[in-house]
Amino acid sequence: MSLLTYLILAVLAAISIAAYMVGLYNRLQSLRNGAEATLSQIRVAMKKRLDMVEGLVASTEAYAHFEMEVLERITDLRAGLGEARPKDLDRIQGESQGLIGKISAVAESYPDLKTSEAMALTMNAIRDVEDEIARYRYTYNNIVQEYNTMLDTFPSSIAASRAGMREEEYLSFEVDELASQGYLPWQEEPRRPEAGWR
Q1: pTM > 0.90
Q2: Which member of 140, 149, 152, 191 has the lowest number of beta carbons within 10 Å of its beta carbon?
Q3: Integer Cα distance of 143 and 35 in angstroms
Q4: Of 51 and 70, which is predicted with more confidence?
Q5: 152: how many CB neighbours lie within 10 A of its CB?
Q6: CATH class of residue range 3-179
């Protein structure tokens, strides 16, 4: 083979490698954008839930005196959602769950409030939004897993390091795991049946 043939093969190989690296970069960028879009959906759903919690506070005020502090906390949490990162969303999730727990405790003390249609509808709507948040969290974590895996594997790690891409954080929402096991931080652990030997 002539020198010209080797030169053409080298240029074709360089173009192929460059095209492959551009493809990897585009995939990484797509995953990062997907993760950010999903985080935005989580922020919107969390804001919707905080709006509903504020409505619950308003409906319970007639039965129990809620401090202005609770309403201010809801406002602060809502304001913090704007550009919240995963770690911030974990904190906001826990705090808003705590507020819902406090309101539920008040409702338990007032049978009229507990059985009111407005309270029941709002609590059901909050549960629906929490399911929505859980679905978004699942989607986000799947996207982040794929993105972080690509950052850690060859050859996509080369494209990622050249572009200055860093690993993304997962959303944990520990409260969701506790709730799925039957208890929340503001509730006692469920009673376990007594077991003994006969």
Answers
A1: no
A2: 191
A3: 6
A4: 51
A5: 11
A6: mainly alpha
Tens of pLDDT, residues 59-114: 776 666 666 777 788 888 888 888 888 888 888 888 888 888 887 877 777 777 66
Mean pLDDT estimate for the chain: 81
Question: Buried b vs exposed e over 72-85: b needs ≥16 C-beta within 10 Å?
Answer: ebbeebbebbeebe
Structure-token match 């201010």, residue found: 72
